Amino acid sequence: MADIPLPPGFTAAKMSQAQKAFEAALGADKVFFEALDRISYQDKFAIDEARHHPAGAIAPTSVEEVQAAVKIANQFRVPLWPISRGKNLGYGGTAPELAGSVVLDLSRMKKIEFDAANGVVTLEPGVGFYDLYDYIQQHKLPYWLSTPGNSWGSVIGNALDRGVGYTPYGENTKNFCGMEVVLPTGEVVRTGMGAFSNAPTWGLYPFGYGPAWDQMFVQSNFGIVTKANMWLMPEPESLMGMDVEFDRPEDLKAMVDTIGPLRRERLLQQSPSIGNWLRAAAVLTTRKEWTDKPGALDDSVISAIRKKFNIGWWGVSLRLYGREEVNKAVYKVLEKAMSDIKPMLLKPTTWVKGQPMEYSGWTGTPMTFPMQNINWYGGRGGHIGFSPLLPQDGTKALEQFQRTYARYKEYGMDYQGSFAFGERHLVNVNAMIFDKDNPQMMGRIDPFFRTLVADAKAQGYGEYRTHLDYMDLVAESYDWGGGALRKLNEKVKNALDPNGILAPGKSGIWPTTYNGERKA
Amino acid sequence: MADIPLPPGFTAAKMSQAQKAFEAALGADKVFFEALDRISYQDKFAIDEARHHPAGAIAPTSVEEVQAAVKIANQFRVPLWPISRGKNLGYGGTAPELAGSVVLDLSRMKKIEFDAANGVVTLEPGVGFYDLYDYIQQHKLPYWLSTPGNSWGSVIGNALDRGVGYTPYGENTKNFCGMEVVLPTGEVVRTGMGAFSNAPTWGLYPFGYGPAWDQMFVQSNFGIVTKANMWLMPEPESLMGMDVEFDRPEDLKAMVDTIGPLRRERLLQQSPSIGNWLRAAAVLTTRKEWTDKPGALDDSVISAIRKKFNIGWWGVSLRLYGREEVNKAVYKVLEKAMSDIKPMLLKPTTWVKGQPMEYSGWTGTPMTFPMQNINWYGGRGGHIGFSPLLPQDGTKALEQFQRTYARYKEYGMDYQGSFAFGERHLVNVNAMIFDKDNPQMMGRIDPFFRTLVADAKAQGYGEYRTHLDYMDLVAESYDWGGGALRKLNEKVKNALDPNGILAPGKSGIWPTTYNGERKA
To answer: Which CATH architecture has domain A112-234?
Structure first.
């Protein structure tokens, strides 16, 4: 254990003792401290490969084992980093914020309980979208999932990180309805109506009596979610919509200003995402088929790629779910609105129950093909995302795009950007695709990312989610009242986790015990 | 100040010093400690008139004054009981849980900021539904409110107590999008994107970065909400629907089982409430016009009243908001579904923009006429509500009704009950109307209420909200894991409010400083 990464102030001997205690409590087959184990829990898309190395990992299979692990963590003051399935690859994957933490891998907790009358699933964190999809198919249940673009991850884990999907249930964190949580001191709580023994409404009414806790366990380090109820969308009678392509970068303004009001009105109940040509092209081709010039792509190359695949500079898909007659009435409104802003292409799509179904995010089918984009540059590919929040304002969106696009050119990177609607906001997701075997490129990522954060800060645009490397940087940008909300979070953190053992540094929330670890 | 109610361990001299400190900080015109002041802040509908008496009240007009008041409260250890406008009359009104508390009356904080592009209002707690309605009318803004049955209260205050309205925005607590909060130790925080200085998305994206706090300040005593963003519904192009009456108590089952799936499907986006004949009749007539017999009403009297006003045993209204063509398509589905279960009366209703508008809860118009029901018995009327949460299951709803109706008869009370839909739950709101000048009746209310709590507990049905008298009783019924969630709440309470000055006892959450005050 000589070269094992350790938390500050730790000795290898103490970690070895902790390892033995984990083995005694969980069994040796659930404890992983070999060199190869450690590597397997590192960040696959790391920008700086030297960071965020775990000391090891443990994989409990029950709530009781999670409690036992927490007890040992408190005894030895070992920081634990809980992951569900660890598949949020653009944000750090399985790796802990604080090097030397022990990964608490919950992927073996895979229980599914299904309330088919109400469309509520009670899930453990190890249940992936594929698992739940298979369960639904096998039991022929009339519900659809809300899957993210890469669906190998955990259903709960995605929602706990505020990931999104394509359907009207796409803001996955809003589908939580009651949780079971192991607190940092080892007690178990149930939230919402789960606090009322045997309440049949645990998965039906989200708030319970008094303050409601679910969102406090999202993007936080206040507890380990060992079970959560989530609402699923009833299978619709019909799915209608359109895929629409626009020719010019400037068209972004009209797209946002046309779709925004329809979304805020809730006529459009699903949250569309406007993506640029590279989002479409990067899963169809690779860069070297078009050019070997370094730096950002020329307009002539972009035009050639777009022409070959017949894609717009921007594209967006709109979808309607529900009764066929209702969808038809809504479709007419959408069709008129979108035609008015002159797309280069508008392709209608329609499905009615009984017809063969398209297997895509629109029908809640798990998928992984969007990850092909990491092959864009060749070499060992990867990406991280920069995702600030904007108002639904076409002018502001266009300015944000122009500012960001100029930075991509300045840093010699190919622009993959999207503007994803929420009900009243936009998330400007900028994927930075990179080639880990290109050291020159890898050296540019960090200054590039920091520049984008600073640019957005000047506009008042904060990120909704970020990679481990930037959790402190982003937390620092949430600066109202001298960082008053962070101070509140840390006061609660210290009250709930006096030894600071649970995910120190998550979302920039540091317990007093690791005060010195915050990055300036 | 000899007879002034005081918190445990307090002396009149110390309260007098605190009063002087409040006067020095806020000005004498914002501090109320006369006998008449105290009476005016008591519970108007109190079952036991001796309880919940405040020591006095203060009415700051700005965030800075709220902070100054909190500072003084900590200095003197005076418990403060914040109210917005104090109009939730069935739950305690202006009165504090702990006798001797000082009411922190925020009704003079009445600022309105309106983001007309996005339909977001930033409100102070003193803004009532009438104020906001007037503002919208005056500025001709294309947004509708979600008003509760009695609309004299605060918009924020209602949502902070999880009150509901009639429109698709009817679950008012879900319309919060960022708050400004004074913590019990005097610091101010802004939640969600408010934590990011000058973010234009404060009122647009509810979660921010990291754990989301808004729901932690709902039904809680963790902070004083001095400002909140709320989403408003865009004015619809059309409003369509139907008022439907059913003849027999047993029809409740089919009503729930027919409406529930349409609601869970989100075809019906507004949450209907099934009410019994007395909900309709109690605002049209009074009891003495029909009988002078004490005890629960005979079936013959009920039949006579129903016949005269042509109302069903149960009635329900369904409403659709949005584009006219869409509403027409949805209406057809609702009409078929409701006709299939054979109502005694189905009255369609329709409105299109430009036509004269019905002034009702359906159009978000503030109103107070439902409060007429307190005149039912004659004398000084009042009511409290018993409101357990059920699944959307017709059989269970009918059983709950039958059980409760039998108790109303046993305790000699006239039954006013409703089953209000949420998206996946039902709230069974039982109004206990009483005559405060009938001591025999008033003596029955408390045992009656406790019996209903125990009956519901046996079924797993917990209350979503309750009167001051029953906050501890209801909190006790949330007993999973030995009251694990309450213990978590109290751990956070003690961390945020070490002196226990803010609303001790709210929702059954007691700080250590008032440990002895919890009712068994």
So the answer is: 2-Layer Sandwich (3.30)
From chain A, pick out residues whose CB is under 8 angstroms from the CB of B209.
219, 462-466, 474-475, 478, 507-508
Residues 161-190 of B with CB under 8 A from A: 162, 168, 173, 177, 183, 187-190
Q: Per CATH, is A471-517 categorized as 1.10.45.10?
A: yes
A481 touches chain B (CB under 8 A): yes
- The tokens describing B9, both together, are 């361990």
Chain B environment of A480 (Cβ under 8 Å):
190, 194-197
Q: Which residues contact B299 (CB under 8 A, 6 or more apart)?
A: none
Angstrom distances, CA of residue B332 to CA of A235, B257, B329, B348, B387: 20, 18, 6, 11, 33
Nearest to B489 by CA among A189, A502, A74: A189
| Cβ pair B488:A328 closer than 8 A | no
Whether this model's ipTM surpasses 0.85 comes out as: yes
Q: Looking at the domain that runs over A238-466, which CATH code has it been given?
A: 3.40.462.10
pLDDT tens across A90-140, in order? 899 999 999 999 999 999 999 999 999 999 999 999 999 999 999 999 999
3-state helix, strand, coil in chain A (%, to 5): 40, 20, 40
Q: Does domain A12-105 have CATH number 3.30.43.10?
A: yes
Bridge partner list, B241: B319, B349
Q: What is the pLDDT of residues B299-357, one digit of tens each?
A: 999 999 999 999 999 999 999 999 999 999 999 999 999 999 999 999 999 999 999 99
Contacts of residue B458, defined as CB under 8 A and 6 or more positions apart, other chains included, come to none
Tokens of B147: 């008003």
A184 to chain B: closest CA residue: B488
Q: Is B333 on the interface with A (CB under 8 A)?
A: yes
DSSP string covering A150-171: S-SSBHHHHHHTT-B-SSTT-B
Eight-state DSSP code of residue A56: E
* Chain A: residue whose CA lies nearest to B144: A265
Contacts of A231 in chain B (CB under 8 A): 424
State the CB neighbour count (10 A cutoff) for residue B237. 18
Q: Note whether B309 and B229 are within 8 A (CB).
A: no
Is the distance from CB of B66 to CB of B4 less than 8 angstroms? no
Residue B224 near residue B82, CB atoms below 8 Å = yes
Which is it for the CA torsion B375, B376, B379, B382, positive or negative? Answer: negative
- Find which of A164, A190, A204, A473 to mutate to test the B interface (most B CBs within 10 Å of its CB): A204
Contact B118 A264 (CB under 8 A): yes
Q: What does the alpha-carbon distance between residue A491 and residue A496 come to, in Å, rounded to a whole number?
A: 9
Q: Phi/psi at A288 (nearest 5 deg)?
A: -70, -15
Helical pair B439-459 and B394-410, crossing angle rounded to 10 deg? 150
CA A83 centroid distance within chain? 13
The average pLDDT across A379-388 equals 95
**Cα–chain center distance at A358:** 24
* Residue B461 annotated to the active site: no
Q: CA B59: distance to chain centroid? A: 22
Please indicate whether, in this complex, the C-beta atoms of A484 and B188 are within 8 angstroms of each other. yes
Burial (CB count within 10 angstroms: exposed 0-12, middle 13-18, buried 19+), residue B440: exposed
Find residues 379-398 of chain B whose CB sits inside 8 Å of chain A.
389-393, 396
What is the tens place of the pLDDT at every residue in A38-82? 999 999 999 999 999 999 999 999 999 999 999 999 999 999 999
Residue ranges of domains in chain B: 12-105, 112-234, 238-466, 471-517
Q: Nearest Cβ partner of A425 from B204, B323, B393?
A: B204
How much is the pLDDT for B156? 98
Q: In what order do the strands lie in the sheet with A80-83?
A: A31-32, A56-58, A102-105, A80-83
Question: What Cα–Cα distance (Å) separates residue A39 from each residue in A42, A47, B376?
Answer: 5, 15, 74
